[in-house]
Amino acid sequence: MTTAARGVAARGVDTPGRAQVPARRLRSDRWWLPPAATAAGLLAFVVYGGVRAFQQQYFFADERYLTPFYSPCVSLGCASEPGAAHFGMFLPDHPLIPYAALSLPFLLGFRLTCYYYRKAYYRSIWIAPAACAVPEPHATYTGETRFPLILQNAHRYFFYVALLVSLVNTYDAIVAFRHPTDGFVVGVGNLVLLVNVALLWLYTVSCHSCRHVMGGRLTHFSKHPVRYWLWTRISALNTRHMLFAWVTLGTLVLTDLYVMLVARGTITDLRLIG
Amino acid sequence: MTHTGRFRLWRGDAEGGALTDFDVEVNDGEVVLDVIHRIQATQAPDLAVRWNCKAGKCGSCSAEIDGRPRLMCMTRMSQFAPQDVVTVTPMRTFPVIRDLVTDVSFNYAKAREVPAFTPPADLAPGEYRMAQADVQRSQEFRKCIECFLCQDVCHVVRDHEENKPAFAGPRFLMRIAELELHPLDVADRVPAAQDEHGLGLCNITKCCTDVCPEGIKITDNALIPMKERVADRRYDPVVWLGRTIRRRRG
Amino acid sequence: MTETERHDYDVLVIGAGGAGLRAAIEARERGLRTAIVCKSLFGKAHTVMAEGGCAAAMGNANSRDSWQVHFRDTMRGGKFLNSWRMAELHAKEAPDRVWELESWGALFDRTADGRISQRNFGGHTYPRLAHVGDRTGLELIRTLQQRIVALQQADHAETGDYEARLRVFAECTVTELLTDASTGAVAGAFGYWRESGRFVVFSAPAVVLATGGIGKSFQVTSNSWEYTGDGQALAMRAGASLVDMEFVQFHPTGMVWPPSVKGILVTEGVRGDGGVLKNSDGERFMFGYVPDVFTGQYAQSEDEADRWYEDQENNRRTPDLLPRDEVARAINTEVKEGRGSEHGGVYLDIASRMPAAEIQRRLPSMYHQFKELADVDITAEAMEVGPTCHYVMGGIAVDPDTGASTLPGLYAAGECAGGMHGSNRLGGNSLSDLLVFGRRAGLGAAGYVAGLASRPPVDEAGVDAAAAMALAPFDPPSGDLPGENPYALHAELQQAMNDLVGIIRTEAEMTAALDRLDELRTRVRDVAVEGHRQYNPGWHLALDLRNMLMVGEAVASSALRRTESRGGHTREDYPALDPQWRHRVLVTRRAPDDPDPVVPRVVVEEAERDPMRPDLLELFDLPELEKYYTAPELVTHPGGEPA
Ligand SMILES: Cc1cc2nc3c(=O)[nH]c(=O)nc-3n(C[C@H](O)[C@H](O)[C@H](O)COP(=O)(O)OP(=O)(O)OC[C@H]3O[C@@H](n4cnc5c(N)ncnc54)[C@H](O)[C@@H]3O)c2cc1C
Ligand code: SF4
Ligand code: SF4
Ligand code: FES
Ligand code: FES
């Protein structure tokens, strides 16, 4: 989206003809705080997620809890945890191929092309711009008009896949209620999986592409009352899309952490029912 | 309650200028524009400032207060501490005329480039029937008072003068969305939004939405839906891949 | 004067509010090269501030509505002083003008069956105001603005030049009309660019004035700085007449607190949608203020008034929605008698009358305005409101059908024209007035230009005089002495008008006002401005002061002359409506023997209003007319003869 800064010719707010102010910026509030916090949050998740995705260990607890980072578990390596693979095992077991290599790239793509995350990393990582009315450092700017950023327009296809993955996660959460020996049980882990998957659904359906597909592309709402109704619901959720984006990052990590700790035996899952 | 407020106003013109300090009386309940008017009446009679309604309805009094694009008539003094220095400059994306007044003709030029409302040819005035549900999305955009603060804050042109010819800016991309969503507009506006008005330059970082004094959700309700409509047409992946490869080669 | 810029047009429209834009559209559509000049940016004229709606008897909300009902309401509101022909044209044509806006892209709020929704307003029998939330003026001006752009795009497609036939000169102020020295006909106008201070001369055989009102001469006003009475003063100086200048509307509900927002309008839509006025005792005092001429037309109990919002067939409307003059006077009395609110107004309560979400949906900008400017949440507490100078019914005397003034080539429309509203304007009747008479003035001007054998030449001496006049504040006669500060002078003028020619008037106060104006007229010559000509607000104000003083004198002298109370003119010393005054209007002109070029004096003369056409008169019942008319005027009414 940019090339490296060229020279020091006056540009941006210093362009000749505009009101010249020597100060680099006039915002006196802590404008840097939100982008800094965003960058820290995103980075923390990427590091945690990266480590876990390639760890290939502690992803399945005996209680049949499968962490979302390994779902669906389709690598031959999943055999190490019998019961983890619900959809067959066919990917080669290789340290550089995550067990959930079928879903993770799409989930990553879904979030990378998400309209909210785009805003978040354009602002905090790419500094274009870091905050409103704070000059950005790039000499040129082409936005999302060229490769690779033009790929952002593929967001809806990631959304379609994400819907499927959400179904898989839902399946994981439901089968987890059937203990291999004790039949129907409810443990804390079940609730963790359930809350996580519910929030994932909220994040997924509050997506702008979803809003568009459901009704946004219509011009005459009055002729499509059902889609209009759906659109209004999704629009209401959509206003909280950013919230869901962050909350699901948190619940994903917490869910995974919980499953990992139970799988390692560091903690024991508390049985509530059954 | 009255106190002496400390103001720092940009004074000058296209040739150059500087921030000038003023100590001025500030009363309870006043807005920044009241104080600027007092400076005008008592200390600097030729201080240039543009305003009309003093009620947030006309969008004339746009400026930057402590570096943030705002309406001077809707910025209350109570949000500052009495000892704060309040800095007011003209909008920094458009050429300055004098003091706090900028040349906003960029925006009027962009307005002309958006093809006008095109009703169905056979519909007589008086026969228009539109459901409230069908007009309310466009009605939100028609709340716009053309203060041009969104145009001012948008980094696409604020930080990159060279993008001005290619980019209509949030206000006018929103105008395209307004017509695109208008239940009786028959023109096709989607390809032009991308090709002629620079929708692709927007990276949805939402500063326009943040500054809009009318609270219009420009990004969520106008720009992103337009991007989705463009994607409908353009970015079917297969078609798109072929085109990108061709463009890369060329 | 070397740097004077020159332009030639067929029609020059001064003013880019609703009236000016509509006139320009019409002139351009008739094939004439048209220029629009305005003091502020394109699309920011006063019309954007209109909130409540635009009255037009479309009958969407109540099918019993018709132009006849609208006509009757308008005449009643104006206490039968209106130019009945204007009221007739207005009532008949307003629906077409509103529908036309839709075909240009306007999006009004809708009824359930997809037509334009209409709301209640003071003095209108049925819900009649087409509206968009509470930002109707914005919709109107934006639609007209976009229509102008559409026409420019058409010209661009044809000629490659957007401005080939229609050009907007924004931030350009006209300071004088130019005439043909031999015939006195209008030949153009002289002005300056606010941005550079450079002079512009427009030559045009037809000029349409659409400059709006005069409210900035008053201290407490809902009007913006643009409302300095320029059009009225330009017309008088060029030789045209004004009419009805004593009628100034004080809107009953302006904000009263905090001081910096005092006067900002609280739309009548608040009351139209259910808000009620209360005094400090919590009493809905309007029930005690229904005047005799309206007895029987308004509810007499709170219950009936409340039922009316739901069922208008079987109940009478609440007196909160009496015409504005009545409500403003009532508030004035309540406050004077010690039942006012904390900051000298009364309470306007909508919070206790509907759910918060409903208020926010129906009155979003009022909610916003109080929240932002006064820290008041109108969904939780009552607003404090009081009268504010809002609108001038009087203005340039025009021919109802064409908008022609008494000066050949000079046309006027919108708030700066007079006659249509009589002694008091109904809410919502202004926006429709702009459209109906804006179009007619455009047509009138186009017709006039088409019929001209030759274009009147601009009198060059007039150009030089106008330039000298405009530059005077840089070089005041006081020489090295500190000159008068234009801001201080303006404040004194506002104070005088507010205190002495306000809602309630007496002979002594108005005589005092005229003395004050006299004194200010002398001092205005010594106004001195600092700095140079680029965007210099002090200089701009100094030039506007001339107009404000002239118009102020027109208002005060007319008000002194009319020895009765009617509509927007209330005399404490003549508190009653006088039928002998009903058919007489006051015409103001520049005094023919006063050569003063700065602020010429004015003379006020009485003239007769034409008697109403019998078919229109028959629309009213005799008993109602008898309240306003003298007996001899009614002999032709069929109700007068035995059946
Ligand atoms: C707060 C408020 C709310 C209102 N609400 C309503 C309502 O709900 N319904 C209703 O019907 N009416 C309402 N009105 C009244 C109505 O808005 C005005 O009467 C109407 O808009 C006047 O329009 P206009 O076209 O005559 O002039 P304006 O819109 O005022 O335009 C005047 C134009 O003339 C230009 N001009 C003036 N002097 C010069 C000069 N010397 N040289 C060049 N240009 C000049 C100005 O720049 C401006 O462009 C309201 C008024 C106010 C103040
Ligand atoms: S969201 Fe797009 S249009 Fe709005 S400020 Fe950001 S880049 Fe500009
Ligand atoms: S969209 Fe909002 S910020 Fe932009 S011009 Fe309109 S009112 Fe101003
Ligand atoms: S997931 Fe965020 S917009 Fe689609
Ligand atoms: S003066 Fe009109 S918006 Fe501030």
UniProtKB/TrEMBL annotation, chain A:
Record keywords: Membrane, Transmembrane, Transmembrane helix
Membrane-spanning parts: 31-51, 96-117, 157-177, 183-204, 243-263
Protein name in UniProt: Succinate dehydrogenase membrane anchor subunit
From TrEMBL, chain B:
Pathway connected to this protein: Carbohydrate metabolism; tricarboxylic acid cycle
Keyword 4Fe-4S appears in the UniProt entry: yes
Domain of life, source organism: Bacteria
Occurrences of domain 2Fe-2S ferredoxin-type (ranges): 5-91
Keywords per UniProt: 2Fe-2S, 4Fe-4S, Iron, Iron-sulfur, Metal-binding, Oxidoreductase
Entries under PROSITE patterns matching the protein: 2FE2S_FER_1, 2FE2S_FER_2
InterPro entries named in the record: 2Fe-2S_ferredoxin-like_sf, 2Fe-2S_ferredoxin-type, 2Fe2S_fd_BS, 4Fe4S_Fe-S-bd, Beta-grasp_dom_sf, Helical_ferredxn, SDH/FRD_Iron-Sulfur, Succ_DH/fum_Rdtase_Fe-S
Cofactor(s) needed: [2Fe-2S] cluster; [3Fe-4S] cluster; [4Fe-4S] cluster
Pfam family, one: Fer2_3
Family: Belongs to the succinate dehydrogenase/fumarate reductase iron-sulfur protein family.
Name the record gives this protein: Succinate dehydrogenase/fumarate reductase iron-sulfur subunit
Source organism of the structure: Isoptericola luteus
From TrEMBL, chain C:
Keyword Oxidoreductase among UniProt keywords: yes
Keywords linked to the UniProt accession: Flavoprotein, Oxidoreductase
Domain FAD-dependent oxidoreductase 2 FAD-binding: 10-431
Gene3D superfamilies: FAD/NAD(P)-binding domain (3.50.50.60), Fumarate reductase/succinate dehydrogenase flavoprotein-like, C-terminal domain (1.20.58.100), Succinate dehydrogenase/fumarate reductase flavoprotein, catalytic domain (3.90.700.10)
SUPFAM superfamilies linked to this entry: FAD/NAD(P)-binding domain, Succinate dehydrogenase/fumarate reductase flavoprotein C-terminal domain, Succinate dehydrogenase/fumarate reductase flavoprotein, catalytic domain
Transmembrane spans: none
Pfam families: FAD_binding_2, Succ_DH_flav_C
Segments forming domain Fumarate reductase/succinate dehydrogenase flavoprotein-like C-terminal: 490-591
Protein name: Fumarate reductase/succinate dehydrogenase flavoprotein subunit
